[in-house]
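Hey forum,

I'm writing up a methods section and want to include a predicted complex as supplementary material. The small molecule is S-adenosylmethionine. I've pasted the protein sequence and the SMILES. Can someone with a working setup run it? I'll credit the forum in the acknowledgements.
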Amino acid sequence: MPATGAKPLGTADEASAAQAVRQMFDSIAPRYDLLNHVLSANVDRLWWRRTARRFQPILAIPQASVLDICCGTGDMTMALLKLRPRDSQPILAADFSRGMLTRGALKFGAESRASGSPYAIPLEADALHLPLKSASLDLIVTAFGFRNLANYEAGLREFNRVLKPGGQLGILEFSEPGGLLGKAYAVYFLRVLPAIGRLICGPVSAGKAGPYSYLPTSVGNFPPPAEMLRLMQSTGYEQCSWQTYTFGIAGLYTATRPLVV
Ligand SMILES: C[S@@+](CC[C@H](N)C(=O)[O-])C[C@H]1O[C@@H](n2cnc3c(N)ncnc32)[C@H](O)[C@@H]1O
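Reply by user p_vandermeer:
Happy to help. Structure tokens for the complex are below, copy them as they are.
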């Protein structure tokens, strides 16, 4: 049966799933960057940069309106900002965890405003109910956030609503590599990674299971690429594609809102 959305342990419906996800990210926010860089050996930096480069033609247009949804502590936003020209329209960087967003705002916020350098505006918002006008964005990017939405179909429909016709979507997500590498990676992902996560984060800070037990479970429950591409097509996108990064550990979904429906 196709997956409908994230279901953290002990949650029964979409509202409680979203609340559990938000609380988890609020609780790990102070250590999120450290955890990320330790657990990924900094490969995540390459993934953010590669994703930003994929959308370079849009980012180079000063008037382009860009949203980084589920921006967290802002590293994807920073990679996007590097490709924006001076005096361009600020990027909107949105997240529903205030703890994560506050830390992000320290990196991408208003300090650059006066100097004319590209900057982003932090926005506390739920990806499933964006406080944005329909057909108002040229580009939506989300990095390692989509998997956490309580309803994937609703998320894709909401992104489609706020994208302009011809606007583009990029979803950077973890994936499960196949073959021998997949087996070795599964050991790291299911055993080593949660243990390191508990060590750095502490077991109490984010519930009994800890956020890094949630991470492998949520990746395992996420629709595989073929299913995700079908879901993107059925929610109104065209030119849907999937490109793997680093032996399939992660990858980028891209899609376009059609010019004519
Ligand atoms: C794994 S972090 C990724 C953060 C950042 N994009 C990065 O690449 O490091 C996932 C983020 O998604 C946010 N998130 C999850 N569900 C969300 C929702 N429904 N609306 C807004 N943000 C959400 C979480 O609060 C968290 O900050």
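Some notes you might quote in the supplement: The beta strands are 66-69, 91-95, 120-124, 137-143, 163-174, 238-245, 250-256. Residues 18, 21-22, 25, 70-72, 75-76, 95-97, 100, 126-128, 143-145, 148-149 surround S-adenosylmethionine (CB under 6 Å).
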